Amino acid sequence: MRRSFCVHVRAPPLQTVAKESYYQPRTLEKHADSILALASVLWSISYYSSPLAVFYLYRKGYLTMPKVVAISHYAGTMLLLLAGIACLRGIGRWTNPQYIQFITILEDAHRYGTPEHKVKKKLSSYNFDFRSWPVDFRWDEFTSRSDSGNVPLLRSEPKHRSAINGFLHAIKKLPCQIASFIVAHTFGRRMLYPGSVYLLQKALMPMLLQGQARLVEEYNGRRAKLAACDGNEIDTIFVDRRGTLEPQGRKLVICCEGNAGFYEVGCISTPLDAGYSVLGWNHPGFAGSTGVPLPQNEANAMDVVVQYAIHRLGFLPEDIILYAWSIGGFTATWAAMSYPEVSAVILDASFDDLVPLALKVMPESWRSLVTRTVRQHLNLNNAEQLCKYQGPVLLVRRTKDEIITTTVPEDIMSNRGNDLLLKLLQHRYPRIMTEEGIRIVREWLKASTPMEEASMYSRYEVEDDWCLSVLKSYQAEEGDEFPWSVGEDMTLDGRRQLALFLARKHLQNFEATHCTPLPPQEFHLPWSL
Q1: pTM as predicted
Q2: How far apart are CA 486 and CA 471, in angstroms?
Q3: What b/e readout covers 409-442, taking b as 16+ CB neighbours within 10 angstroms?
Q4: Nearest Cα to Cα of residue 37 among 100, 103, 102, 89
Q5: Within 10 A of 528 (CB to CB), how many other CB atoms are there?
Q6: CA 349 – CA 258 distance, rounded (Å)
Q7: What are 356-391's pLDDT values in tens digits?
Q8: Which residues, listed in sequence order, are joined to residue 8 by a DSSP beta bridge?
Q9: Residues 256 and 232 sit within 8 Å (Cβ to Cβ)
């Protein structure tokens, strides 16, 4: 049975009205819905506190068979009562003409099922449970993959062992692997992606609905449901600026949100206010998207989002910019690695690897377990993926970032964005980023203000024109593909200049904390020769 929970109805755009027309539930539906919503919240609280509750009941001696049977009878009675309340809510809805009109449009949308159909346009005027929204695009509509397997992730090479040693090693590591699996799939995943927790989403729902209404009504945003190869359904919204006078409207910015970010209120506003066409999407398990936000599911979701942008929205890969904030850097770098033709990558407040940040918030005694859990189940290897991409990259470093620093926010050198920059430059320009080059760039990274940056730059007498001429000359002779061998026959002073020049071109400082929205005037396309 399809469930359609109407939250609020906006006036259809085909009609001319003075202001919004909100759905007004009748008394029976209103009170029944309130009771079911309360029951849902109580169930979520019970679910997360169940381990402590079971331990408490066991210590008090309440887990005897007679008492367990009594609790089961009580739970069964409550379920029957809630089922009756749900039936009353259904009666209240089916006696409401406004709800009947909505259901008719929803059924027509499922019957016709094409985004261009006028019925689908009417449906976009309503705000309801996204599980009932028809699928607009499937992962296998244009892909060349013949099976429904997951998209490939970048994994480390397994160590080669003999059959006997390999078997004994697997037996020896089995308890640790079980512990890692339990940690990753219980509190580990929820700590990494708190936006997937139901209670948080419930608290943010009014704000999410308001943000969604703004995108649809003010920017003519088009929602769409995408079916990923793992069966998850991804909630997206697209704002098309190709018909405007803004030249940047011909470029599409695909936005990848943070671990508690939603497209309704997230980093999508930055490129939107800068005049670009924008495609936002929610992580699996966030708001209208189904599933859980594990790395494999994240990559599967990003894959169908990029395919949708290319094959349904009609953007060429060279017109697509990947923009990510914080943990969204994982899906952005995965897409850059998997779709190397994309125009550029912009990573704001992102990091190189999850392990140092995970160790920061966990007890030191858990170090081995945390490292193993991250590597096996939650491996967000952003730097490794980014080094597979050949195109322009810009890193935005927050100088007061309190999240991706491993010590204190004031210690800018513990910002993992520094390590992301160094790993990228070392991969692309290994002859420049020698031990001395790394030392110079690290010294430059200590600068947290434009004045300090300029002072460092002038101290080493960096000549931008000379650096550009050297790089362009190498590019003309050797081609574009990284890594480059430029700098191997150069003086120490020349390599220093190039190291600072390249660091300055690839990293942009923004004086703010981790969660401060990036202003549109700070949204710049990456430097490119």
Answers
A1: 0.86
A2: 8
A3: beebebbbbbbbbbbbbbbbbbbbbbeebeebbe
A4: 89
A5: 12
A6: 10
A7: 999 999 999 999 999 999 999 999 999 999 999 999
A8: 127
A9: no
